[in-house]
Amino acid sequence: MDRHDDLPLPFFKYHPDPLATGMIQRRQTTCPICQQVRAYVYVGPFYAEERVKGICPWCIQSGLAATMYHGEFQDVASCEDAAPECRDELAHRTPGYNGWQQEIWLSHHNNFCAFVGV
């Protein structure tokens, strides 16, 4: 297994600073998708039949995690309306967040807003 501590974190259009929101933490993981030892781990919600832990940010951004486990990082039924390509990026390639109640991702002009914290 390769170690990728020096890789910059991927950018997420709808969740631009997941370190600040606490949904990605600097903590070593062996990602169950890419099998790489990573210095960052996703700790937010992932809706799939299997319980999956230790997903790295790179497998979120690429969509591999959602594809491999037929899962979503957002409950798209609880999102406001947006273009289909935006819904796909939000559900399958964007880290989610935890809220006090059901999370609702807001939209504006057929596109989702960026989540910057609660």
Q: Could you walk me through the main structural features you see in this protein, from its secondary elements to its overall organization?
A:
- This protein has 118 residues and is an alpha+beta fold.
- The protein is 22% helix and 14% strand.
- The protein contains 4 helices and 4 strands, in the order αββαααββ.
- It has helices at residues 18-21, 57-62, 64-69, 84-93, and strands spanning 24-30, 37-42, 107-108, 111-112.
- Strands 1-2 form a two-stranded antiparallel ribbon.
- A hairpin with a 6-residue loop joins β1 (24-30) and β2.
- The longest helix has 10 residues, at 84-93.
- The chain is globular, with a radius of gyration of 14 Å.
- The mean pLDDT is 91.
Envelope shape: globular
Distance between the termini: 36 Å
Distinct helical segment count: 4
Largest sheet: 2 strands, antiparallel
SS elements, strand count: 4
* Class by SSE composition: alpha+beta
In helices, the fraction of residues equals 10-25%
Radius of gyration: 14 Å
Low-confidence stretches: none
Bin the strand percentage. 5-15%
* Biggest sheet strand line-up: 1-2
Mean pLDDT: 91
Order of SSEs, N→C?
HEEHHHEE
What are the salient characteristics of this protein?
two-stranded antiparallel ribbon; 4 strands; single chain; alpha+beta; globular; 4 helices; 118 residues
